[in-house]
Amino acid sequence: MRIILSLFLAVFFMNLSPSSADEPSVQWAIAIHGGAGGNPAKWEDRKRAARKEGLEKALSAGKAVLESGGEAMDAVEAAIRVLEDDASFNAGRGAVLTEDGKAELDASIMDGKTRACGAVAGVTRTKNPIGLARLVMSQTKHVLLAGPGADEFAEEQKVPLVKPDYFLSKFDNSYRRKNNLAADASEPHFGTVGCVALDQSGNLAAGTSTGGTAQKLPGRVGDSPIVGAGTYASNDTCAVSGTGVGEEYIRHSVAYDIAAQMRYANRSLEDAVTEVMTQRLEQGVGGLITVSRTGKIEMQHNTPGMSCGAADSTGRFDTHLKLAAEPDAGEDRENAERVIAAIIHQQASDWSDGDLDAFMKPYWRSDNLTFSSGGKVTRGFDATLASYRKRYPDKATMGMTTFSDLEFLKLGDDAMQVIGTWKLDRDKDPIGGKFTLVFKRIDHAWKIVHDHTSLLAK
Ligand code: ASP
C-alpha cells in the first residue's frame, strides 16, 4: 500500500512541477521579418545586400534592448522603427503605393503580458506608424484608429510627421511609373516588417508594420493592423507576426490561430506554425515569425523567400533572405543523414549565390568551431567567417561550388562525421579536394563544429 501511495505521490508531483520542455531555455529571444514573397535569387545584388544589412541593423537594435534587460515591447518597437526608416522594406519609408500612387500605412503592436494592443490603418503622414500604434494603445481607450482620424491623432501626439513624398522609394514600380522610369521587371516590391520578442522577465510582444500590397485600392486595409490576423502576443503561449497576402491572414485569423492551437490543443509552436503554413494557407501566400514563452523561435514561409532573422541569449544571431527546411530533433539516423546532406547541398547553393552569411549558417555563432585548411587552424565562427572573407573578397572570386561523394559515420547519438569531395569552379583556376565535417546535434538542429578542408593537386 505504501509503495502504491508513494508511487501515486511521485506521479502527482511530477505532474505538478513544470516539465523541462516548459522551462525557458533562453533568457531572451527575438525574431524579425522584412516580408515574404519574392525570390531573392532573382534580385539584384544591391537589393540583396541592402536587405541583409537592414535586417542585421534591426536585429541588433532589438537585441540591444533585450540584452540590457529591457522590455519586449521596446525591443519590438526599436527593431521595427529601424526597418520603417529603411527604404528597402515596404513599411514607413519605401512603402508600396495604392493604385493612385499614395502611401497608406498600417501597423499594430501587442503586449503579451497585458494583451494591451494598439493599431493604425491608412495613415499618410506619420514617419513611424509603429510608434503611433503604440500611442493608440497607451494614450487612448481604443485599439485601432484609421484614416484622417489617425493622422490627426499623430499631430496631437506630436510624433514626427513627414510629407507624403518621404515614403516613396525608387524600388517601387508605382514610383517608377510616376517618374517615367522603366519598371523594375524583377518582381513586385515585398517587404512588410515585423518583430516578436521574449524579454528577460518572460514577457512577450509582437508588432507588424506595412505599406500593404502593391497597387491596392485606396482605403484597403490588410492584416498587419488587425490584431489576431497579422499580429498577436500572449504570455501564456507565443508572439506572432505575419507577412503575405493580408486578406488570407484575416480570413484564417492566422496569428491568433497559432496561439489558440497551443492554448487549447496543447500543440508545440512548431506544429502550430507548420499546420497554418501547410494546411490552412495555400502555397505561395506568405510567412510567419513566432517566439514561444520558452524562447523557442519558429519562422516559416511558403513563398520562395522571406527576409528574416533571429537572435537569442545563447549567442544566436542570423539573418536570411530565405529559409532552408529546418531539421528536426527526433530524426533517426537515416533521417539525420538526409538532413545533413540537405544542409551541405544548401551550403553549396548559398556559396554559389555568393551568400557567405547563409553559407555559414550551419556553423552558427560558436566559439568552439575549428576550421582547418592548408595547415592553418582557425577557431570560432567569426574568425572562420573573416578568413573566408579575406580569401574571397568579392562574389566573383567565389565561383560555383559542388559537394559530392558524401559518406557518413555516426559518432555516438548526437554527432556525425561526414567526408566528401568539394569542387570550386572559378573562371581562372578551378580547385577542389576533400573535406571532413563533424556535425553535432544541438537542440533542434545540426551544427558544424569541425571543418577540415584539403586541396588536392590538379
Ligand atoms: N500582409 C501585408 C498586407 O496584406 C502585406 C505583406 O505582408 O507583404 O497588407
TrEMBL record:
InterPro entries documented for this protein: DUF4440, NTF2-like_dom_sf, Ntn_hydrolases_N, Peptidase_T2
Domain DUF4440, residue spans: 340-448
Positions with a binding annotation for substrate: R220, V221, G222, D223, T243, G244, V245, G246
A Pfam family the protein falls into: DUF4440
Keyword hit for Amino-acid biosynthesis: no
Record-linked SUPFAM superfamilies: N-terminal nucleophile aminohydrolases (Ntn hydrolases), NTF2-like
Entry annotation: catalytic residues: T192 (nucleophile)
Entry annotated with the keyword Amino-acid biosynthesis: no
Signal peptide positions (record): 1-21
The protein's name in its UniProt record: Isoaspartyl peptidase
Organism: Stieleria marina
Gene: iaaA
